[in-house]
Design a protein that fits this description.
By secondary structure, the chain is mainly beta. It has two domains: 6-83, 2-Layer Sandwich (Nucleic acid-binding protein fold); 94-190, Nucleic acid-binding proteins (OB fold (Dihydrolipoamide Acetyltransferase, E2P), Beta Barrel). It contains two helices and eleven strands; from the N terminus they run βαβββββαβββββ. A six-stranded antiparallel β-sheet has the order 3-4-5-2-1-6, with no helix packed on it. Strands 9-8-7-10-11 form a five-stranded antiparallel β-sheet, with no helix packed on it. A hairpin with a 2-residue loop joins strand 7 and strand 8 (111-117). The longest helix is centred in the middle third of the chain and has 13 residues, at 71-83.
């Protein structure tokens, strides 16, 4: 069973193919095709699945990264994988994106370093041009997959959370930090909708 993966779908860009990626950095070296499923390998290790003609089984209305696939959606994918004798996917327990609140701000030259309360823990965010104490934001935690496929990683920079822009959340095309409504609960998963 695969615990960590990302799922992408974009009919316009790649056609009716669901991409399931386990290792974003590994280059494919071989693949096998069985029915509508292609298993992609890097030196004998599975790095992803491509499921073709997925719209015949389930309608997907989103484009790009599917941040928090529901258990029902994962069960549908797993039934396809099981039918072809392939390893299945674990249900998502968290998207890696939380509602955070700016607890304090430090000035760094012309930029600001916000410290974000992510629900009982205050973590430094990346340098930004403008933000206010008390603002509620969407914070991607280390290990979360961004819309462009890049994973939020620990670096030498003190930032331990990535504040997401409207563009990164597919809300609009601007690069302003997305501000969450006042009723957003600090620490809650931004993408979780009701019970999964």
């Amino acid at each position: 069973m695969f615990d960590k993966y990302s799922i992408y779908y974009s009919y316009k860009e790649i056609g009716d193919v669901l991409l399931i990626v386990f290792d974003q950095k590994a280059m494919p070296t071989s693949f096998i095709q069985k029915s509508d499923v292609t298993v992609i390998y890097h030196n004998g290790e599975i790095i992803g699945y491509n499921i073709f003609n997925i719209s015949k089984i389930v309608k997907i209305k989103t484009k790009g990264l599917i941040y928090y696939p529901s258990n029902v959606f994962i069960d549908i994918i797993n039934s396809i994988l099981k039918n072809n004798q392939f390893d299945i996917l674990a249900h998502y327990s968290h998207s890696g994106y939380v509602i955070g609140q700016v607890a304090k701000i430090e000035k760094d030259h012309m930029l600001f370093r916000p410290y974000i309360d992510v629900g009982g823990k205050i973590l430094p965010g990346q340098l930004v041009s403008h933000i206010n104490e008390g603002d509620k934001v969407v914070a991607a935690l280390i290990g979360a997959r961004l819309y462009n496929g890049q994973e939020v990683e620990e670096t030498s920079d003190p930032a331990q959370v990535h504040l997401c822009s409207n563009r990164e959340l597919s809300i609009s095309l601007d690069d302003e930090i997305n501000l969450v409504d006042e009723d957003g609960v600090v620490g809650e998963d931004f993408f979780k909708i009701g019970e999964q």
